[in-house]
Amino acid sequence: MTKARDLGDFISDGTIAETVTADGLNLGDDEKIQLGAGSDLQIYHDGQHSYVSDQGTGNIKYRAASRHQFENADGSKMYIQLVGDTVGQEYVQLRYNNATKLATTSTGASVTGTIAVSGDFNATSGTFTVQSNGTDILNVTSTLMSPQTDGAISLGSASNAFNNLHLDGAATIGGNVGIGTSSPATQASVQNTSTSLGLEIDTTSGFASGPTLRGYYRAGSAYKPIAMTGSSVHFGINDVEKMRIGSSGQIGLSGANYGTSGQVLTSGGSGAAPTWTTISAGAPFSGFGS
Fold first, then answer.
1. Which helix (DSSP H) or strand (DSSP E) does residue 7 occupy?
2. What is the tally of helices (H) and strands (E) in the chain?
3. d(C-alpha 82, C-alpha 45), whole Å
4. N or C: which end of the chain has fewer CB atoms below 10 A?
């Protein structure tokens, strides 16, 4: 008898009533293996794609004693591996070019390589921890950023045109620092825009002697500063020095003009600048006879 007749002996009303053992099962395109009373699970190929289609209620459950592995056509590379071993450790591996890049762990997930985020990166609860070689370096909560080692923290890079902030027990800032201003012109600038008062620390510009501390009030774009260095005090109008007190207590006009020995400071009259004047010896007094 032919195999078709042998199989027909087991079929009654379109139902296989007995166990059938076969060397293979060949179905054409769009011919389906259908399981379940309502053809709930269907397996077929439509000529272009292959399908495992759940058309019923409930879930598709994949069960394996050890591992689920998703591989390429010839089995040379694995894309995903779901592991359940004999000691109760279950984890998932996602791979790139056969190398595991992300794996679930007992505490969360382990990532090998670089994480590129195009949107926001949010830690919705708990503490966000940065580690190096298994050691906590930085902990970040919703209210606090805490270094966890005795090392330093640096923000920014001079090569990227950032102002550097370096913390290692003391703050080191590369660039200008502004309080009350977003555009500090000096190393440290404190400004109160409502009263036009300010304080600047500057070691690169200013009066000829290079002041390091300068207090001022602003009138338009002009400054009327008081500048103090380690050895002198300077007074200026419109950023031009008018008077200074030197390291020995001497008084200078328009810079380091202290006059010469024996000169006196003489008023130039209303609205005029004073000058250093040499006093000439006068004639003897003789107004009361010889």
1. helix 3-8
2. 1, 26
3. 26
4. C
